[in-house]
Amino acid sequence: MIKQETTPQSIDEYIAAFPQEIQEVLESIRQTIRQAAPDAGETISYKIPTFTLHGNLVHFSAYKHHIGFYPGPTGIESFKRNLLEYKSAKGSVQFPLSRPMPYALISKMVAYRVKENLEKAEVKKKR
Known about the structure:
- By secondary structure, the protein is of the alpha+beta class.
- It has helices at 11-16, 20-36, 72-78, 103-126; strands spanning 41-45, 48-52, 56-62, 66-70, 87-88, 93-96.
- The chain has a six-stranded antiparallel beta sheet.
């Protein structure tokens, strides 16, 4: 990740801090998320781009050799078979910049998280 002196105030500002080729990847990820979660809000949380819908939905960030994608622990667990070829942890996965970005997989993971967050919101509403 490019070290920024101040926290970016928007996803546009975050993306603009990177070289053009990385900006294109980040913008494509942003649009993939936007298509899968059209009602989600955009913000910066933990100094990285974050989409929200009844709470945090997903985060993403750029590093020197990979894109970090953060769908939370349930997002990783639910797609663990699809993520075998990537380095992942409890709530994150690394997509290498040296390989094609798996936009279809990102879209599916976001759609899963949308469904999950909407279900949680419905349960809360009924309480």
